[in-house]
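Worked problem 6 (solution included).
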Amino acid sequence: MKPLRVAIVGSGPSGFFAAGNLLEQDNIEVQVDVFDRLPTPFGLVRYGVAPDHPAIKSVTKIFDRTAQHENFRYFGNVEVATDIQAAELAQWYDAVIYAIGASGGRRLEVDGAWLPGNHPSSDFVGWYNGHPDRRDLDVDLGVERAVVIGNGNVALDAARILVTGTEKLEGTDMAEHALAALRGSAIREVVVLGRRGAEQAAFTPSEVAELGKLPGVDVIVDPADVPAEDKERDKARPPIERNNLKQLRKLAALEPTGADRRIVLKFLRSVVGIGGDGAVRTVSVATNELALGEDGTVEAQPTGAVAEHDAGLVIHAVGYHGTPIPGIPFDTERGVFRNADSRIVGYDGAPLPGHYVVGWIKRGPSGVIPTNRDCARDTVSVLLADAAAGKLARSEFDGAQVEKLVVERVPNLVEYDGWMAIDAHETALAEEEDRPRVKLTSVDAMIDAAQAAAE
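Solution. The predicted structure is:
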């Protein structure tokens, strides 16, 4: 029987988990081609995970094993909508899974949010992780106070990176341009502002606990902002909330040491304006109180109190959104491809045969890396059920024909062997510096490394 041929657009965790799930099927042979617009695979594992969290990046070992499967191919440096079109993929393959993530960063919609010195967290994180699109971002670290808006893990990552001494970061895979900037940083205080209370914070307990272990950094939490310990009430809380409060109480009990740098966690605060003449100079912060909304959810409502604070850098860690691809129905409000039960659907709600979605572009920017494993399993299950039910129009193209077409369109195609050459080059650069790798941060340099190994 002819193998089922599936294209996956995007090589981050959700894309690779979907590929692995497809390739491990016993009752049907599947051929998987993974496309990525960058020469390098792994998406947010490479460009989103903080450089001082190397253990999280070890998931790429699983992806490497998937890539060694004889029915797996990687087409890097290929951009859908530029080099090839979505409609062409639908012709070339029996099914297409979109796993492009949510690379666009949101910023708060307040006056002054577009002044220089404002950065969506996606830009800032991409900058310090060496993403080619963000390598030239102008991050002014010559200021004493930064404000991070948001109360999730990304917000804590940004705060931690801004105050962590470079002596610790030198041993990571942080981009060299970011290390150079941080070596000369004047930042002494980072204020993290959460719109709701400590009980509603979206970060994880391990991220909070890590703040208290940073050398040379005081972490300031007002005890009045954290509910007092109540064993019966705490027992009834969801586990993450309960453990977050446990860690926050520990931080609130710490006495400041007079350290050179500090992180201040503030709850029930909203930025309502950003001021400055040509660049960020001040941030106006409103105090909130909690109230039950009409739907029963806890909402933050302004009390009317507003204070102005000096700040020269603002990181907006208030979410991500996906990027549209021509021909694929897009939900502009949620920033995802329109979908139902893992199937991409049209504006009329009807499924587009053979079109599927996984990861953040399916459900929005939520969860951690293992969340994408479950999400991928769900998507693959739906795809295979559709295949078994005869709902997929089988393509007349074979793998060789598709490869020929892709090579014609993209002379600088980077396949998985090319990525392995880039990987080897980066790790070789790091040998003398006792670092895991020195990242190449331009597409041209990546292509050169991939092609040099092939010569």
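Discussion: The first helix runs from residue 13 to 23.
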